[in-house]
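Write out structure tokens for DUF5009 domain-containing protein.
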Amino acid sequence: MILVNNPGPGPTYAPLEHAEWHGWTFTDTVFPFFLWIVGVAMTLSTARRMERGDDRGALLRHTIQRAVIIFLLGFLMGPFPNIDFATIRVPGVLQRIAVCYLIAGVIFLFTKVRGQIAWLVGLNALYWGLMTLYPTPECGPGSLTKECNFARYVDTQFLSGHMWRVTKVWDPEGIVSTLPAIGTVFFGILTGHLLRRFSEPLQRLRLLLGSGAALLALAYVLAIWMPFNKNLWTTSYSVLMAGLASLLFGAWYYLSDVRGFGQWFRPFEIFGSNAILMFLLSGALAKIALRSGAGASFHQNVCLAVTSPINASLLYALANVLILYLIAWALWRKQWFLKF
């Protein structure tokens, strides 16, 4: 997201843009992959703590505390330093991560695998029913157009004046679309259960690739009735991203753990050791570059001086990635990690 959120002025390669409405691009995989791996990590860490007898009340308090901190970071850092509570955006990327983590975490603490499967199915069934059956004013039930759909209708009722400044009348991290986004975390939780239950590497690999392929097939069946759409986080999109995440994780697991090439992925580990901090700093860096004029100067005098406009935009984005990598690397070397 550091790469795709900070391009230079001018044209951008299509894979580094979000799909305008229906469909998906490479960029549209990043957010759901993050929520999915949150679920995997939740199972691997929290389940182990529960098994050794850690107090569930303490785990619950920690879950709530972490969710509140992440929500407030997104809520306040997005508009910082010009915070105006009369128009501040309530939803957002970190806010959605916080809400999904909180709800999935609470359910995880007090249910078994069958209950978690039931919640996954139930959340998506509720979302599907609301989006396809509720008689949305002005367009009726089942409309999934940008101009009229149930999710947009709910956002206008409860978030008017507090939505994404680009759209103003609907929010890509809105209320209704959070339901299947929570389901994305549950897909990761269930994958975590598989990884804990089966320890033999090739068995794990078969399960990851097999479940990923099955979810991909299911997603394309569901897309017959409900198209892939990141802005609405449609059920088909949620299932598709879970399938892709499982396949990619399987490939990563094979190369890193089975074949022993993990050292080649160290740059990703370095970024991941302070992932949320790097995301926040990327937004701060973009604001500093814009307001100081340094960004425009670098793009004009360096990027455009050596390549075409579309490649200059990419070069500018890569420069952002490099700067933040150096910061992440310095923190990693000193073992300074932001924890909640």
